Amino acid sequence: MLYCSPEVRPFSGTGGLSEVAGSLPKALCQSGKIDCRVITPLYRSIPRKYRDKMEFLGWTMIPVAWRTKYMGVFSMEWDGVLCYFIDNEEYFDRDGLYGYYNDCERFAFFSRAVFESLRLTGFTPDIVHANDWQTAMVPVYQDAIYHRRFLTTVFTIHNIEYQGSYGKEVIRDVLGLPEGSEHLVEYGDGVNLLKGGIDTANLVSTVSPTYASELRDPISAFGLDGIVRASYGKFRGILNGIDTDSYNPASDPIIAANYTPEDPSGKEICHSHLQKLAGLPEKNVPILSLISRLVPAKGMDLLRETLDRILSEEDVQLIVLGTGFPEYEDFFRGLEARWPEKVRSWITFNIGRSHEIYAGSDIFLMPSRSEPCGLSQMIAMRYGTVPVVRATGGLRDSVKDCTFGDGTGFVFDEYSGDAFYNAVMQALALKRNTENWEKLKIHDMKQDFSWKHSAEEYIQMYEQVRYH
């Protein structure tokens, strides 16, 4: 099986897709049931320590509509997974991964390269698994151009908000689709690559069962609810896992002290270390944390509505890590200015700092308006930090409300400032009950969010599609 992704941790990444692409193939290979290989672009940002280990397999010229372009193929093994890298400096030797005027052409090239590279790698997959709009043309090209025998396609939607929408002129000039196949990507007055992937893939998966169900609703599908409903018989929802080797408080080399469910005392050391790192008073108060892209879908308006009230009423501290819309970045900078002894806002992206926040904080805030899966709430629980989340997408599937008994966090349904405020207050009330809070913290640390279970579900899906 060939897993194609526009980003793969640790080589490249902008978010959750990179985490999944770096973890799921490893779990599939470790199962011993699937030979899973990964293919991804060779971006400029891939560190030299990885490039030095790559082997050059060869090059050729491949079609991109009416042009032909150079394609080089490199390979290396990482964590037991054979990875292929597609080289083209014109398309991938850039500062960032996305956001360029010719993104459609860049990823049409990469999607063609998924097929064209097979001659150089010598690999003959029976399944190609594409991910998000950047690789949505893979199942389209299989349907319209390549027609490889005994090859089936799986397409995963990680976030339907990003669809690859363009004008119809790209059909001939960029995508190079043959006459008669235009309808595969046409949608409304233009082209929608995600729609093409949904229509042509043999199976479509999403990153949580609830998200799969939500995509039938116009509120969640960003205009593609009709397409989803028409193809819903081939939809599957599988909750993502996390890399429990990278996120393990028992062995994490980044955090101030290691700890386990059997001996969680190291979390107190991490708590004090985080306060010192943030320049906040080192005292025994709950630390609330937020690690997020600062964008509307993450519930930023609920945070703006409630955080000043919470900080004025409660003896707590808040630590924020993330970047996003300038208006939200400015809000958190202003919040720190208003509450310098209670708030620290790190408006940056820093993986190491995120580990220290997960380990040192007590309550993790995730009031998302929409959340296809979410990994942060699982990581937080792994580190004994109790989540407060809204019941949407993967948050509903991974966090069970403990307000009235057994559970793993605090879950609210209504998307409102009052509902979020009440959930935080409930969490703080339980935090004051030391014995019960310790039980909840340890219970959360024992939850199994590894890829092992999710990988088994993917294997079952692959077996189903293999004999489609």
What does this molecule look like?
The strands form 3 sheets. The protein has a 9-stranded mixed beta sheet with strand order 3-4-5-2-1-6-7-11-12, sandwiched between helices. Strands 15-14-13-16-17-18 form a 6-stranded parallel beta sheet, with helices on both faces. It has helices spanning 16-30, 48-51, 89-92, 103-116, 118-121, 137-146, 170-175, 193-200, 209-214, 218-221, 225-230, 266-278, 300-313, 326-338, 351-360, 376-382, 393-398, 417-431, 434-445, 451-466; strands at 2-4, 37-41, 55-64, 67-78, 81-87, 127-131, 152-157, 165-166, 186-187, 190-192, 203-206, 235-237, 287-291, 317-321, 343-346, 363-366, 386-390, 410-412. The chain is 40% helix and 19% strand. It starts with a strand and ends with a helix. Helix 1 (16-30) packs across helix 20. By secondary structure, the protein is α/β, with parallel strands linked by helices. The mean pLDDT is 96.
Helix content: 25-40%
Strand order within the widest beta sheet: 3-4-5-2-1-6-7-11-12
Shape: globular
Could you tell me the strand content as a percent range? 15-25%
How many angstroms separate the termini?
15 Å
**Rg for CA atoms:** 23 Å
Mean model confidence by pLDDT = 96
Number of helices: 20
Going by helix content, strand content and strand pairing, the class is alpha/beta
- Regions with little confidence, pLDDT below 50 for 5+ residues: none
Give me the count of strands. 18
Largest sheet: 9 strands, mixed
